[in-house]
Each structure stands twice: as structure tokens, then as C-alpha cells.
Amino acid sequence: MEKVRISPLQFFSLLVLFQFGTTLVVNLGLQAGKDSWIAMLIGMIMGLLLFSMNAFLYSLFPDKLPTVYYRILLGKYLGGFVGLSYGVFYLHTASRDVVDGGLLVMASAALKETPLLIVNLIMVMTVAYVLGKGIEVLARTALIFLAVVLIIGGFSLLVILFAGIVDLQRLLPVMGEGTGPILKSVVEKNIHFPFAELIVATVLMPALNQKKTGIKAGYLAILFCGVMLAQTSAITISVLGTNITERSVFPLLTMVGKANISEFIERTEILVVMVLIIGVFFKISLYYYAALMCTSELFKIPYKKLIYPYAVIILGNSMVLSRSYSEHLMKGSKYLYTVLPVFTIVIPAVLVILVMIRILVRRMKSKSKSRSEPNSNSSPAS
Amino acid sequence: MLKHRWFAFLVLGCCLAMMTGCWDAVELNRRAIVSGIGIDWMESKSQYLISFQTVVADEISGKAGRGATPTSVYQASGKTVIEAMRNTSRKVPRIISLAHTGLIVISDDVARNGIVDLFDYLDRDSDIRLTAEILVAGKGQRAEEVVAVLTPIGKITAFALAQKIDLTSRQLSENFRVEVDDVIRGMLTPGGGPIINGVIIEGSKEGAAKKSNLESAKSDGLAVISNLAVFKGGKLKGWMTKEESRGTVWIRDKMQKTPLHIKLENGQGEVAFDVMRSKTRIEAELQDPLQPIIRIFVEPNLSIREVNSSIDLRDPHTMKILEEAVNKEVVRILKKAVEKSKRLDSDILGFSHVIERTKPAVWRELKDRWDVIYPRIQVEYQVNSVVRNSQMRDRSFKHDIHIE
């Protein structure tokens, strides 16, 4: 792979924007009802655990793309197959996110009657252009947009608080239905969306210029996002109540639309639309990039040659994915707990176990070696 | 290299074609901005009659005005709101734009038949905001008449009415803002319903819609905010009186300012208070799950505004007597509201939410029987008022003059 280097701060902003991406936008139902903020926090903790697996693998194989260590660990053919399926998985998820973003723009902004194809086309073209410039450009863009997102987020929060529409009683009673719905929600949704999706970070990690700080930045990004997302969901429910939140296609948008400070500051939704589009842009970019890197490494094709063909695939796939938004969401929520965990939980877990076994075996070997050669003072392999 | 250049040109060409502007932009001069919507029931066609109060931009901006009315009402009928809206396109030369709708007036008879069907449109539509204010036209009045009223202060009636609600809820507190989402949440309250502000036309209905209404110092007709309408589920059950409205506002903890009038014992005269601020807290006691006790705690802060009595306000003991009299008065007002809501069997005060918040498990048991339990529920009141000040004087000058 080519020599690209991204700094921990850039890595942090990429991951933050990636997680904000569709999670802030899309409503996959409120299984946990009023307690969805708790579910989000638990999901965040699980996300930290999952990330630690990826970080562990990275610490063993720094400077190596995941597709490389899949082959080292799983053998040439199985590893190659897994790498390839990751590529397909990333590509598919990228096109799902394109649809999410496209539908958001159509529903929220003035583009109500614009065909989805056009909206998606513009989005994919923009992403392809940035990726054509390289991941470093994307990372630097992320840093700038993170600042934009934080400023908008802070402003919206202030507007909502000062508009006096937050009624915290709507969050009570906490855990009125017991812990059952929360755990169900965590298992079916909150782990995967967005925290487990950070599997894409494995593709980015080899480009980090400071390994240890980079990993720390990753953990921080998850913590930061978990808290922000939980807070957003709590505020949305305390403004709209569970029923309207649950039925809203884009709850955040509806919630911010309620803010009105004496007919002077109102209709701040457009700012939120900006945040959402920025987030979706980075989510698509990272998935797209991950798909590119996986396949280019496997087939030894320079990834820049793949950008435009992939753009066509993502665009085409996004158009045939589903007939309606409800079908898209229904498939999406199933996809979350059926297909996604295979790539984000099962495979990394298997790899970690394999690595552990390898380390154990090597340690035992070196022990038996050092026993047989008591004179050697060389440090153990571990 | 050449190939690349061609490709780049192609992409740029595509961009040019697309970047000419928003795909479905509609310029302002192609829009008719709707400020208020009136919804009536047409008995003859059994359809909704929807009246759109549209802003005549030329008259508002001033320069190009022809001296016509600032707003104009277009009407059309339809089985649904959207059908009526499309039907207006035969009458209006511009696209009906609902994004700035500030007010939705529902007539009394539509409200009695149920507003559930209407609200799905208001909730779902991406143009109408949840911040639109909802009003119910008083008995025997039609929403189309309310929407057609012209007001002297504030050119656009719908926005002026929304401001009236804001003002009166701050000054008199017998109303409070009720927006689209408040109504929806109200309809979802088990055994309860929304409360919506009423509106009536005082004076001549025909005169209020004419331009001459703006030209005389004493308007022929005015749109006036009236008392609260009580709903059960999506159906209008009845209207509150002034005092009941005030009690409801108080229990819902929306009290901001309200005048209170106390008659002193032994013919000592009268004192008028102003509630400056007030805090309400509701608790539920669930010792016996079948007979929940609701406790309402109110802590008003008052200011003395008028003293038609010779009492000495420097004496803390007098203050205590006054405070106790106020407590009694407030309890009386609160009781009226609770009794009304019990009589109409609609939990508009949100007691079910209080029980749910206190003990979710008990609420799950009560839920199915709430309709039966609610009218028999025991409510206790505890008012602890504090007289904070007496404005610029202590005693009244009546303390020192002795007529008779």
C-alpha cells in the first residue's frame, strides 16, 4: 500500500463523523422506549469492547491491512475469501448509506420531487472525487467538518434549551418496563448501530502515524459519540415524547423544528440537515474506502483505478436495494442483527482466538526450546 | 492522458447540467403563503371545508399595494385535507405553500365529530411544522369566519391570534400554547385527551371580514381567545368556564400571571392580588392501588395590586390572614378544574402520567380500568402561597381616611 499517514486527531474526527452519520438520521424504532438513551450507553460500552478486539489485532499486525492478516491467520484461500467478502460487505453497506442520505435530503430539504437517482448520484460523485484525492484529504476534511458539526450541535442544543421545549418528565419513569426491552434493544440495534460498524477502522489503522495515540483516539471517539448520541436521543424524547419520536422518519429533524425562540430564531432544521449530510458523507466515504482497499490489496490493482467502477456499483446498488423507504428500513434493521454481526463480531472474535492460540503455541515452543537450551539468554518471543 | 481529459469534460458537463439550481425550487412569486387554516364540516357534501388564509404579499410590503385587504381566504372542500388543498388550485393562481402556517382553527362541530383523522395530516406533512398553533372555534361559530377576520393591530390575523395566545397566557394564564404535537400527545394519554384553546368572534362576523373593520376606531368584530375546550380522545366533550380554565392551567404548571380577588371577612373590604409566579407539583399515593390519591401542591408567589380596605399591610399577621384566604381561593379554583375533568371523564390533567411515573407496575394494573377509576379518584390540595410584596405602598390611603 502507498504511504499515507493520518494523525490521531484526524482519525478521531473521521470516526466521530462516521458514527454520527446515519445514527443521528435514521430511526430504526425505539425498542427501549424512553430508555433508549440507556441502551445507547450500554451499546457504547459493548462498542468499546469490540473496538479493543480490533485494536488488539492491529497491535499485532501494524502497517498491515486486515486483508493481509486474514490470509496470515486463516490461510491463503479462506483468508482471501474472507477479505473479499469484507470488500463486498463494505460496498453494500456504503450503498445502503447512500440511500439513507438520499432519502434524508429528499424528505427534509427542498428536494421533495427530485428523483432519488439524482440525489444519490451527486452524493456518490462527491465521495468518489474526495477519495480520488486520497485518504489524507478525506482525513483533513473530516477535521474541518468536525469543527462545523460541533459548532452547529452546540448552537442547536442552546436553541432547544432556551426555547423551553424540553420536558424531562417525558423520560420518566426510568426503566418502567424493566431491563428486558433495553437489553433487547442493545442486542438488536445499539451494539451494531453505529458502534460495531467501526470495523472499518481496521482498514484505516495501518495509515495511522502514531500507533498508540491513534488507538486512544479511537476509544475516545467511541466514548464521545456514545455520550453525544445518548444525549441526543434523550433530548429528542423529552421534546417530542416517545410516540412521535418512534413514528418519525427523521426524529432529530422534527425535534429541532420544534425550537422557536420568540419567532426570532426558528427553523433551525436546515443546520441539522447540514450535520446529517456531513455525517452521511463520511460514513459513505469510509465504507467506500474500506471496500476499495480490501479489493485493491487482494487483486493488486491500484485503488485509484477502482474508484469510478465502484462508484457505478454503489450507485446502481443503491437504486435497486429497495422499492420504498419502509422496505429499506425493514431490511436495514434485519441486516443489523443478521449480516452485520458476522463481520463485526464473529470474524474478529474468531481471529482474536486464533491469534491467542498462535501466541500460546509459540510461547510453549519457546519455553520448551529455552528448556532444552538453558544457556541462551535471548529474550522470549512473547 | 487524452482519455482522462475527455472523461473530465464529460463529468464537468454533467455537473453543469445539474448545478443550475434546486431541482424543484419554487420562487416566492409563484407561491401563495398560507398563514392560517380553518377546518369546517360541510353537511351538504359531508366533506371538510378547508379555508386557507393566504398572505397578499403586495399589501404587506406596502409599496405595490392596491389598498386591498392584507389577507385573502380561499376555500375548497374535500374528503381529506390534501384533497381540499389540491382542489384550491382551481381557484388560486399560485402554489399553496403551508410552510408558514402559524394557526389551525377547527370548528366546534368538526371537533365534536373527532379530530383524529385531521391530525394525521398535520403530523405527517413535511411543510406544516409541529409548532403550528391549534384553536377550536366556539360553539356556533365557524372556522372559516375566524380565518376571515381582519385585525387592526398586526396585519396577518393568524399570526396576530397566535400572539394573542402567547400574551394572554403570560398575562392572564387561562390559556397556554397548544401546538400540533401537544394535541397528539394529549390524544394518546390513556383515558384523557388534549385541551385546546378556544376562539370566538366578538361582534359582527360579517363586519369583521370586511376592510371597513380596519377603518373604524371601534372594530365591528374581533377574534378573541376564549376558554379551553376539553377533549376525550379525539372528540370535543365540552367547554370550560373561565375559572375552570385557570385551574387547569394551574394544575398543568403553566401558570405565569393571573389576578386573584379576595373578599375579606367581616366586611373589611377586598384585596386584589397578582400571581407573579407559581410552581405546581403533583404526587400520587398508591397505598391502595385501586384507590390512588392524587396530591396537588401549589406554591404561588403573589403581589398585592389593589387594596380596597383599611387593613394594615405592615402587620405580618394580616399578611398571614391574607395568605390563608388566598390558599382557600386557589384550592377552590383548582377543585373546579378537577371536578370538570371528572364530570367529562377525561384525564386532561395528566394524573395517569403521574401514577405511571411514581409506580410503573401499579400503572400497568390500573391502565385498563382507568376510565372507571378516574371519575372517582381522590384529589387532595395543598396550597402554600407567599405574598411577596405590595408594590409601591404598604397601607392603602383608606387606612387613614374615615368616611362615613
UniProtKB/TrEMBL annotation, chain B:
Compartments annotated for it: namely: Membrane
GO CC annotations on file: membrane
Protein's UniProt keywords contain Lipoprotein: yes
The UniProt keywords, alphabetically, are: Germination, Lipoprotein, Membrane, Palmitate, Signal
Q: Which InterPro entries match?
A: GerAC_N, Spore_GerAC-like, Spore_GerAC-like_C, Spore_GerAC_C_sf
State if Ligase is listed as a keyword: no
Ranges for domain Spore germination GerAC-like C-terminal come to: 227-390
Q: Which domain of life is it from?
A: Bacteria
Per UniProt, residues of the Spore germination protein N-terminal domain are: 24-197
As for family, the record states: Belongs to the GerABKC lipoprotein family.
Protein name according to UniProt: Germination protein, Ger(X)C family
Organism from which the protein derives:
Paenibacillus vortex V453
